[in-house]
Amino acid sequence: MSENPAKLSLSNFLASEGRDPLQAPPSFTRWMQAGAWAVELYEPELLATADARTTITYNGKPRSVINLCSYNYLGLANHPEVIAAAHAALTTHGLGACGSPMLSGMTDLHRELERKIAKFLGREDAILFNSGFGGALGTISGLLRKTDVAVLDNRSHLSLRDGATLSRCRSEKFEHNDPASLEASLGRHKGKRQLVVIEGIYSMDGDFGNLEALIAVAESHGASVFIDEAHSTLACGEHGRGAAEKFGVEDRLPMTYGTFSKAFGALGGFVAGSKETLQYLRFYAHPYVYSCALPAVVVAAILKALEIGTSQPELRTKLWENADYFHQQLRGLGIDTGSSTTYVMPIVIGDRERMYRLGHELRSRGLWVAPVDYPAVPQDRICFRACVTAMHTRADLDEALNILEDTLVPGLVAQNA
Ligand SMILES: Cc1ncc(COP(=O)(O)O)c(C=O)c1O
Questions:
Q1: 61 is catalytic
Q2: Is 231 a catalytic residue?
Q3: Is 60 exceeded by the pLDDT of residue 2?
Q4: Which single residue of 122, 319, 348, 352 has CA 20 to 30 Å from 18?
Q5: Residues 94 and 210 in one domain
Q6: What CATH number does residue 287 fall under?
Q7: Do 319 and 390 form a contact (C-beta atoms < 8 A)?
Q8: Which residue is closest in CA terms to ligand 1's atom 14?
Q9: Using CA atoms, how far apart are residues 73 and 270, in angstroms rounded to an integer?
Q10: Looking at residue 360, what is its pLDDT?
Q11: Residues 6+ apart with CB under 8 A from 44
Q12: Is the CB of 27 under 6 A from ligand 1?
């Protein structure tokens, strides 16, 4: 491939190249080498907790940074009581679960968490998965069949899209959050079983799912709706029950899926719903049946995180105050945050090379944001993603804003001149 490396993206290396699938395509390796300076921004080593200020490696050395990169929305990943709960379970239950939950990996702590998650969300039962990704993939692929249709928002997370692919059902997309587009998609497959797949908060755009309107369209077609509340469970809604609680639509959704890797500050996923459906799903979700259960250490930590997250609503209040403040200040600086109205905010740059150059500058000045490149977002929406948490102080946010102003704003002024 002799194209300008700056014009290529991950989508250019999906054709098979060479004779051996166990060898990386040589063109990809050359592309990586040419862009090594940009790739350096990925996989930095975190040398401490995912706190509001932390230390990562940069240029081979420890660098203190303001952390706008972690999903530790309520600060529970490093909460002393959460850590103590994990320590206690390590003593009583050891490290690994050493088996699938079906056979030997289920513990009393797993059962307790299933019950408590179900109660928290007002559902009959819950299933735990050892990853959020596996939970979404397993639930969608475990429930949909070849003759069904998955109707996904075009910004759906890959775990949901991969779940639909694995089920071998037909997949349809609709324009992000657009009821008219959903209407048209559903209309194309009248008479089939259809499942509309939406999210509470979209992980790249940081906007809410258009729940009310989309659910109404689905209902008018007799289609069920599956909601991914990965970024919203525990962090959104008066009691933390996610975007569905915030918008008053919980009763219209038969099931809730979420992850423990974000506001819970841990790892894993769950789905909560009716006893009968979950009993069926337990036998058909491959990532549940054929993969080791979450370690009890993690389950005990999640139990404590759930207790704190549900008994201390002030954490959510602080998170939203911080998000609102940061949004307001970014807007004041003329920085494009797209349609975000939450604690997940894209900082749109639009040009790949500029984004990576600025990414280095931000990191060297002590601000840690995530680079987000095409195809994760459209080419003209290449951005940084910033996540604000309840743990950020006003001083952390102001310092981050100063760094963003010094780094990004001169370019914006030049662009607009
Ligand atoms: C919307 C959404 N669903 C599912 C997942 C997968 O969750 P996990 O990272 O816990 O595997 C993510 C991860 O970021 C996500 O953003």
A1: no
A2: yes
A3: no
A4: 352
A5: yes
A6: 3.40.640.10
A7: yes
A8: 203
A9: 18
A10: 97
A11: 56, 57, 58, 363, 368
A12: no
